[in-house]
Amino acid sequence: MVAISAEKTNAIQAIFSRSKAVIGVIHCDPFPGSPKYRGKSVSDIVERALRDAENYISGGVHGLIIENHGDIPFSKPEDIGHETSALMAVITEKVRERFAVPLGINVLANAAIPAMAIARREAPISSA
């Protein structure tokens, strides 16, 4: 039989070099500017996310997803503030610095453009 289209790449295999993967989801505490934010410092929000990442990694997950889950009720994508994207970017970079696992970014609810901007990463700038 002749294939009509090319064989689809197995995304899990391509990303994780295995046929099955366990992915942990870091549900960040409420960010400044969100309805449920109660004054927790940004450094405490970041540290909590890093502790969650450490727990997942030590538990054997193969990858992580980072979400601003504490920001419920979620804003429409066009109403998400720059402060949310900025803090998600900081948390993502801190997790990347510490853990060598694939990362997914989900800026809730359904804010694909900020999530893609945060996830996009060039090679680190080296000082010469």
TrEMBL record:
> Which Pfam families does this one have?
BtpA
Q: Which superkingdom heads the taxonomic lineage of this protein's source?
A: Bacteria
Q: Which family does it belong to?
A: Belongs to the BtpA family.
Q: What is this protein called?
A: BtpA family membrane complex biogenesis protein
Q: Which organism is it from?
A: Klebsiella pneumoniae
